[in-house]
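Build the 3D complex.
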Amino acid sequence: MSVQTTDYTVSEIRSPAAFIASRVFIYGALVFWAFVCLFPIYWTITTSFKSAVDVTQGHLIPFVDFTPDWKGWRSLGLSPDSISQTSTVRDEFLKRFMNSVITSVGASALAIIIGSLAAYGLVRYRYKFAWFRNEDISFFFLSQLILPPVVLALPFLVLYREVALLDTRIGLVLLYTLMVLPIVIWIMRDQFNSIPVELEEAALVDGLSIWGAFFRIVMPIALPGMVAAFILAMVLCWNEYFFAALLTSTDAKTIPVMVASQTGSQGINWWSMAALATAAIAPLAIIGIALERYLIMGMTAGSVK
Amino acid sequence: MAEQTSTANAWPANPADLIPAGRKRLGWGLLAAATLGLLAIIVVQILYKTEMSTVGFDTWRPVVYAYILWGAALGAWQVLTRGEDGQRALFLLPALLFTIAMVIFPTLFGFYIALTDWNLSSFTGRRFNGLDNFWQMLADPYYRNALLNMVLYVLAVLVEYVIAFGLALLLNAQIKARKFFRVVFLLPLMLSPVAVSWMVGKSLMEYRFGPAATLARHLGWDNPAFFSDPITARISIMMLDAWTFIPFMMIMLLAGLQAMSREVLEAARVDGATAWQTFWQVTFPLMLPVSVTAVILRIIFKLKLADIIITLTSGGPGGATDSVSSFIYREYRDRSNVGYGTMLAMAYLIIIVVFVTWLLKVASRFVRNVN
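Done.
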């Protein structure tokens, strides 16, 4: 995203007092919203270091209000002093974490592969399947976006039991692929449209087959778009809860399901809950900060002409 | 099956008659064999499952494998019989076969389940009961309530849109540390709604000690119970959902603002328009197409709202915060009522397909009229 400014509000204002007032307003609003965005994250992270008293008394600032302690992380088996010991909770957590990684990476990768191929075909060639033409096929793919998960969930519950895919990672991967496929096709269509067709024509003249031209010429150019689509798909799959809650029970449970099922018999262990929530949001927070450019690229694909 | 001509016409497609007859026969043979194999497995499986034969598999998994093989044979058939045209069809086939298998079949199956009385916890099994579920649905006050809630939740998108637009304008103004603010504003979108709604809804907004409740007390609200009476509970859910999704609209609107040509704004300023006038008469109309896209996408996501409600309120108090998805989720989870739950889901699907189609129509007319 280019960092250009279209500043018309400030240049409008002439007197220095009004200028300062507008600055104060703008930065005040920015800081306020940054606080709204960050405070829940801050609260989650700090709570994982609090004891029960600190939570119920609403202490906020570490070292001033309360003494941080590895309590939450110890209960997950991930604190410095417990990391070398065996811990069933940690094993459980790592298993869920790996499930989340495998399903979200697997589904995103699968969606990128079949989605990119379809998007490329739809952009470059004219198809006619019976009375369906390119526009109809594109619409068919994109219309899957409005399909709410709840419509598919119950039929899939029954079907997956019949084909022995219930509570398996493969089953989740297939569903998540379906869920993100429209978005991937949307982004990749935009990407391929922006690549000049002459490049491929030259490649074909040089003797490459159409698939050779796709892999050797088009793919490398479209790679940033693929990364963008992949990350957006990752985010959606990692955070998905509905299908995972319905279709998994013991083996394939993902992190969000584990987070949601943390009410113990003697109330909620805030510290372990907070540690778990921190662990659940950390990977994506890091990806989001590091690869923000691609995320924005993915989200704005096709929306601005 | 498929017929394509290249868009560019720069190179002629291989004429089909250049392909030797033997290769064509091979392609047709392959497709026929795969189709027969798939049908054979399905028939064997049906006979086995209906206990008319003793030969078969425990699960339907082999049928899935047979379908995948059949898809591969279909691709090979295209390439063998149609040469380069077939290779082009190969781009589209995987996604098409995948989506058809994953959507069309389950949806049709869903319509069938919707017409049955099927409770997983009862021993009687599945029983066809026609439109009984439908009549039950019409008389179900909780479902109507959930639909009404969806209307409210969708209307909340407009408030989210105003906030998102404001934030986009802020980020587009001449500010320092723009990248920092952009990353921070984007963060909520990345975070698992379940984890966040847990931490925010259940501890930050906790009645006794949550900082949000404490703050509300300081601001003069004596009884800051965010989830105990229907209206505040709904607003709390809306706020949590907005927190997650405002960045999504904000980013789209920001992209729209940055793509706007500066000349128009300069011209408005030269003409002596105030900032307020410039916004309403230049910026806002120019942003309308982007706005409509952002709002519609956001509404589509909103219609799927479930996870926050399931984890936070389970629809409570008394079903006041239920979205349709969370209601059906509990219908299945608590009552194992697959038949009725599916009927509700299918009715919802029809409602939102009609609604979104109408929305797209109205939106395109609206954009055309204003510009």
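Chain B has 14 helices and two strands.
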